[in-house]
């Protein structure tokens, strides 16, 4: 088995597969502990009931409502039922969660959650989890292809049988065969200029799956996080608001009382991002931002529970939150959409699985609740690992046809032989800047259409992209070019899905032409696959409903 991606989802999948007896390797374009899971700050959701009464049912309802009823309720139930045991498993492996006075795992309030449900390790939860999982990977002595860039999935005999990857350290393409492949390649925040995501978050797995005929689901659903630091986009955790921080406009007004009078700063992310953007657009912002005020929490609490936030604010904005409010604004943060899978991570293609942010199971629907993404990586990483192991252990053959390797070599040579053209970064920047303007917090029909044309134009320019570095070792120029190809494919899928969804639901807000949610027409997922000409084709699939009928969503 091969797991592509070694963040929380990939490592959890590999551990499970190994423990069930499979021979499994991980492959990652960066060192596993540098995976973007390590940037997660606020925590991980499980109904442990340590801070107040809570149960998986309540967790499931909050998640369904948070998803604006687009989440599949069977998948959400699986997540919420399995979450508590999965968190205890992490604890037993050594995750140092923050504690209550009597020694149990502490849980903090997070947006749109009916109870304090977010287990945390101060504000470095992701950092703790990737290190714990990496220890478990090392303990099992699992092979890791570190600094290998997966480029093309191997499709043979109707099933996925491995990957063709570029060896970043030594150069050259390597084909790696596997009976089952799990994609765990994370998100695609780099589609936007203002994002909390690292440079490596370029949606590679989603695009690779799309190219071999696997569908992507709900791609229009890109979440904008309400508190990203100006001007860098670095995340300021929702944990700040969980601890009691206020959001203020230029008039020193807690403006959320006009948008979410009950939940205030703990409303869901889509609601708060829209409120902030409205305040900024209507002239009540502060230099294009609003202010996150922690001062009333006091130095002791800030230093104990939010020390990472303080450090980030001081380093990247020159603001010490003990004394001054932090300038924040909405930024692209999390892709609810991704590779279409069932509740075992299985895609429509035999042998191919996906888990974590690159997948769409779908538990987040149109809007993810804070703390649910880390939980998804663990629960569905585990499940994908188990199912893929079972399949690999009961099927024997694996073959990477030499013709596929030769085609990949030829394609790469053509790219590297090109001596004139445009550098990848200029196209990449233009893509990210225009996505931000035309496919951001609020969406307009004309802007989305315009973005479709821009992407088309960028694609044409991409045909002539030139890689100036012809070297074999750590050729970032080359990997940037390949990543750009992935990003362009995804932008296409997003625009076509966004145009088709003629309603406002969760992250997809169209206040100017379709301001309401329309359950009669659009209580369904967008599904994008490529047609014979390689162009994205849109389809729909109903949402799986079990017990929760859609209701008006207020906070
Ligand atoms: C700043 C920040 C804070 C967050 N805080 C929280 C939080 O507090 N709670 C919460 O629930 N969620 C949080 N999230 C979301 C959550 O952290 C992520 O959704 C989740 O960690 C993604 O994990 P993953 O394993 O799917 O992907 P990642 O951790 O991003 O790992 C992706 C892996 O894929 C590899 N990869 C990618 N492309 C290739 C390729 N072509 N070839 C080889 N390898 C490849 C990478 O090297 C990496 O190992 C946060 C997100 C951000 C950006």
Would you count the extended β strands for me?
20
Shape: globular
Helix content: 25-40%
Helix tally?
15
Explain what you see.
The protein has helices at 8-19, 56-66, 73-93, 125-139, 204-211, 239-242, 269-281, 299-305, 307-317, 372-394, 402-417, 424-438, 445-462, 476-500, 519-522, and strands at residues 2-4, 25-28, 44-45, 107-108, 118-119, 144-146, 148-156, 159-167, 173-177, 181-183, 216-217, 222-229, 246-248, 290-293, 326-335, 338-340, 352-354, 359-360, 524-530, 536-542. By secondary structure, the protein is of the alpha/beta class. The protein has 3 domains: 2-222 and 333-394, FAD/NAD(P)-binding domain; 226-330, Succinate dehydrogenase/fumarate reductase flavoprotein, catalytic domain (Flavocytochrome C3, Chain A, domain 1), CATH 3.90.700.10; 402-542, Methane Monooxygenase Hydroxylase, Chain G, domain 1, CATH 1.20.58. The longest helix is centred in the last third of the chain and has 25 residues, at 476-500. The protein is globular. The two termini are 44 Å apart. The mean pLDDT is 96. The chain binds flavin-adenine dinucleotide. Flavin-adenine dinucleotide binds next to α1, β2, α4, β7 and β15. Flavin-adenine dinucleotide binds at residues 4-10, 27-30, 32, 35-37, 39-44, 125-126, 149-150, 184-187, 196-197, 200, 204, 235, 333-334, 356-358, 370-374, 377.
């Amino acid at each position: 088995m091969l797991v592509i991606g070694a963040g929380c989802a990939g490592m959890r999948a590999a551990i499970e597969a190994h423990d069930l007896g499979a021979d499994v390797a991980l492959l990652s374009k960066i060192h596993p502990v540098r995976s973007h899971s390590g940037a997660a700050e606020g925590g991980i959701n499980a109904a442990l009931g340590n801070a107040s009464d809570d149960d998986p049912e309540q967790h499931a309802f909050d998640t369904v409502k948070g998803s604006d009823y687009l989440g599949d309720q069977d998948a959400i139930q699986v997540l919420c039922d399995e979450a508590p045991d999965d968190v205890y498993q992490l604890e037993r492996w050594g995750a140092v969660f923050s504690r209550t006075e009597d020694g149990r795992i502490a849980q903090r309030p997070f947006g749109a959650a009916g109870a304090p449900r977010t287990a945390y390790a101060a504000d470095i939860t992701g950092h703790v989890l990737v290190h714990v999982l990496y220890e478990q990977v090392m303990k099992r002595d699992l092979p890791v292809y570190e600094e290998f860039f997966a480029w093309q999935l191997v499709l043979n005999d109707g099933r996925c049988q491995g990957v063709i990857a570029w060896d970043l350290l030594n150069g050259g393409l390597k084909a790696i065969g596997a009976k089952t492949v799990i994609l765990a390649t994370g998100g695609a925040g780099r589609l936007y200029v203002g994002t909390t995501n690292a440079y490596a978050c370029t949606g590679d797995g989603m695009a690779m799956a799309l190219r071999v005929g696997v569908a992507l689901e709900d791609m229009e659903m890109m979440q904008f996080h309400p508190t990203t630091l100006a001007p860098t986009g670095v995340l300021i955790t929702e944990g700040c608001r969980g601890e009691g921080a206020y959001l203020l406009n230029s008039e020193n007004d807690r403006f959320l009382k006009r948008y979410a009078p009950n939940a205030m700063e703990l409303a869901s992310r889509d609601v708060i991002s829209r409120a902030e953007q409205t305040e900024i657009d209507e002239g009540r912002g502060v230099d294009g931002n609003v202010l996150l005020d922690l001062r009333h929490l006091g130095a002791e609490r800030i230093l104990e529970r939010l020390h990472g936030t303080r450090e980030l604010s001081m380093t990247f904005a020159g603001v010490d939150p003990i004394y001054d409010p932090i300038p924040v604004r909405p930024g692209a943060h999390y892709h609810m959409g991704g590779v279409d899978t069932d509740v075992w991570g299985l895609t429509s293609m035999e042998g191919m699985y996906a888990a974590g942010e690159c997948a769409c199971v779908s538990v987040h629907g149109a809007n993810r609740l804070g703390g649910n993404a880390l939980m998804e990586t663990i629960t569905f990483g585990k499940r994908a690992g188990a199912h893929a192991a079972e399949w690999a252990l009961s099927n024997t053959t694996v073959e990477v046809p030499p013709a596929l390797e030769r085609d990949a070599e030829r394609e790469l040579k053509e790219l590297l032989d090109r001596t004139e053209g445009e550098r990848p970064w200029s196209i990449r920047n233009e893509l990210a800047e225009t996505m931000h303007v035309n496919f951001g917090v609020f969406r307009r029909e004309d802007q989305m259409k315009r973005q479709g044309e821009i992407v088309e134009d960028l694609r044409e320019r991409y045909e002539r992209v030139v890689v100036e570095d012809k070297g074999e070792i750590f050729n970032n120029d080359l990997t940037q070019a390949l990543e750009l190809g992935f990003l362009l494919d995804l932008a296409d899928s997003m625009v076509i899905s966004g145009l088709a969804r003629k309603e406002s639901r969760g992250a997809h807000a169209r206040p100017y032409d379709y301001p309401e949610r329309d359950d009669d027409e659009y209580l369904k997922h967008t599904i994008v696959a490529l047609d014979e000409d390689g162009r994205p084709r849109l389809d729909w699939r109903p949402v799986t409903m079990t017990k929760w009928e859609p209701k008006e969503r207020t906070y």
